[in-house]
Structures are given as structure tokens and as C-alpha cells.
Amino acid sequence: MKRLADYMKKTLAGIFLAGIVSTGASATTITFDTMPHSVFAPTPQIHIESGYQITPTSSFATFGSFGSGGLHLDICCGPFSSGVQLSRVGGGLFSVNSLDLSLYQDTALLPSWVHFVSFTGFRNNVAVAALSGGSGLPGTLTFGSAFAALDRLVIDTLAIPASFDPFIDYHLDVDNIVVTSVAAVPLPAAIWSLLAGLGLLVSLKAVRRRLRPTGC
């Protein structure tokens, strides 16, 4: 019975993921070209581009681009936000394909084992994908299938170990985030027949257990 229940759980999870597919639309690149150099405001800012919105993850509302023109993040001691989250305007699922990462001099010189940036994908407020790294990360990050069908991507900076100078303004830019919108599609009739059959099996198993004669 337990094995059957486990099988049903796995089957239902697979059916859920199978019901989430790309719309077939071409990928969208968020370039941040229209983002101002910096924004100083008493409330968190929102950058909207190509149907997506980017907001700081904290109440520290300084938000903008710097240097290469991408989205700028400070790791220590700078005026810019240390984290942002990406989502579709009005909600909905999307997949993250790739993004460009630019490191400034001090950050680029940190050892590769020092992880100072993380990428976490969420679906229904549950973290389903994660990636972190530092100077060892390539200039263009390509994300795998784990970053498909998300409703939120959080890009955050991580604390630099105390053994390094805490007063250096470590920072980086994120640019050219390539995303593809995703939509849920109706499940085919055969899937519902499969679910009905699985339910019948569980019911028959329960009846057989109740009717099984007990030992004397």
C-alpha cells in the first residue's frame, strides 16, 4: 500500500510538471537599458521592462545601473541594493535561460571559493532551484531545467568573509537576463483516466485489506 501511495505521489508530481509548458513565444531579454544611473527614494523602486518587474528585496531603496549599464548590486558598504527579485507583471510562470554577470576589480580578485552572489528560483513560495558562486562564475551564466516554471527569481549578494577587508565596496552588475514565459495547459483526457484508474486501485487495495481473514 505504501509503495502504491509513493508511486501515486511521484506520478502526480510528474503530471503537474508535464502540465506546465512553454507558450512557444520567443525568449525575452531584460537589458536594463532604460534604468537610470541611480534612484534615491524613500520607498522601494520597481523597474518594469518587457512584461517583467524587478524590485529590491529589502527596504533599502537605492536602485539603478552603474558602469556597464546593467542592474547594479553592492555586496558591502555601497549605496546600491544588495538584492532584487524578478517576477512577471501580474503574476505567472517563467523560465530563466541565462544572464550576464560583470564583476568589478575588487570582487573579481576574490578567491573563487568565496561565494558572494546567489540565484534562487521560487514556485508557490517554495525554493525549487538554487545556484551560488563568486569570481569563478563565467561572464554568461546558463541556467538548467531546475530554473524552469518559476514565479520568482531572487538575486542576492552574500556576506564576504571577515578575513577580507570589510570596507572595500565589493559590487557587481547583472545584465541581459533572458527569460521565457510559461503557461499551464489543460491536461489531456488520458491523464484524467490514469488518475481515475490509480484511485480505483487504491480503493480496491483498501477493500481487500478489510476483507482479509485474520489468523486464529
TrEMBL record:
Transmembrane segments in this chain: where? 177-202
Where in the sequence is the signal peptide annotated? 1-27
Per UniProt, the keywords (alphabetical) are: Membrane, Signal, Transmembrane, Transmembrane helix
Q: What name does the UniProt record give this protein?
A: VPLPA-CTERM protein sorting domain-containing protein
Organism (species): Roseovarius aestuarii
